[in-house]
Amino acid sequence: MSFVRFETMAKVVELGSFTAAAEALNMTQSAVSHAVASLETEWGVSLFVRDRKKGITLTDIGETLLPHIREVLNRVEKIQQEIALTKNIESGLIRIGTFASASACLLPKLLVSYQKKHPKIEFKFYEGTYEEILEWLDSGIIDVGFVVKGKADEAFDLLPLMKDKMVVAYHENHRFKQQPIVDMEELADEPFIMPTGMYQSHVEDIFSEAQIKPSILFEVHDCTTIARMVGEGLGVTIGPELFLKTQQLVKISHLNVSHHREVALACPSLTQASPAVKAFFDVAETVFTRIQ
């Protein structure tokens, strides 16, 4: 049984087409099709449903087998890294899941330090929501993920990185610009843009604890869109300082209540992780201890 065929199947699923998988793997499309067909013939099952309108989707048995195939590929990667270490030659790939503000503010610091020590390790990045990152970790799509504590405490091994305060954001000419600290009572009558995405629960908790009902004018999922709307003066919002301080069109102030999300690094099992992933956690602990 060839691991190349496993890799080919996983890549077709990841990219959603035989053509894209062929380009990514530097293979011909016919070679990709042959690899999948040979697996189907060997196992006596159909792995994909090919539909002109819907494209390529996994069959039920394909869905069942995919996590096992990814686990095999992950094990092979770990074996290769262990062998490379014995030869004093580092090699390998780390697949990292991250959300927008972590990509912009946390990941660069970590990568700079890591690559100085381990320049031959390659990276692949997946950006998504909190929930998507947890799903990718659970299914083996990624090796490491930036997560928010509370959502992943029991399922994965975690390394806390930082506490990210929730702050209020507003247009640069808003009256709040003279107030480094804004009282929650002052938000009661402000047109409010409520996030419906990753940090909605944090914002709802803040209002609930303050016993205030926000005057919601808009409900928006994308955090970048929210920042742009605030920058146009359409309302104020509450969100994580890590993200909002990077948005040039908005100004921020702290709230008179303390509320934060705790960002952590997660992996399914640190004891079973590859040498490259273990080193990534070691570097992360050093980097963020120094920052704090």
UniProtKB/TrEMBL annotation:
Record keywords: DNA-binding, Transcription, Transcription regulation
Record flagged with keyword Transcription regulation: yes
UniProt keyword Transcription, yes or no: yes
Protein name per UniProt: LysR family transcriptional regulator
Biological source species: Bacillus zhangzhouensis
Molecular functions (GO terms): DNA binding; DNA-binding transcription factor activity
Gene Ontology CC entries for this record: cytosol
Domain HTH lysR-type: 1-59
Family in the record: Belongs to the LysR transcriptional regulatory family.
Gene3D superfamilies xrefs: 3.40.190.290, Winged helix-like DNA-binding domain superfamily/Winged helix DNA-binding domain
Family matches, as InterPro entries: HTH-type_LysR_regulators, LysR_HTH_N, LysR_subst-bd, WH-like_DNA-bd_sf, WH_DNA-bd_sf
PANTHER family, alphabetized: HTH-TYPE TRANSCRIPTIONAL REGULATOR CZCR, HTH-TYPE TRANSCRIPTIONAL REGULATOR YBHD
